[in-house]
Amino acid sequence: xxxxxxxxxxxxxxxxxxxxxxxxxxxxxxxxxxxxxxxxxxxxxxxxxxxxxxxxxxxxxxxxxxxxxxxxxxxxxxxxxxxxxxxxxxxxxxxxxxxxxxxxxxxxxxxxxxxxxxx
Length: 119
What we know:
By secondary structure, the chain is mainly α. 64% of the residues lie in helices and 3% in strands. The chain has 4 helices and 2 strands. A two-stranded antiparallel sheet has the order 1-2.
């Protein structure tokens, strides 16, 4: 049989283990297998690969961002080409809509310089 000291040690051990287990957070890792419908193209390009729902959503957001950036880029170049053929080129509202900050100032300066050279 256990002596009083042995019982006290056993009780302290059991209470310590129970307290330690109660303080340890339990985390569940749910792994959702990628479906054939969820395929992601890597950011660097290449073949589409199966991906999970989180990666698929991130890929969709990234693709939408890239599409918007390409649209702004195409608007910028189309407007710049249109302005270049004008008799008196100037910064238009369309050009201001697609450029901003210091780049807007640089574009305005380039347009101003092109007008002064042509005169």
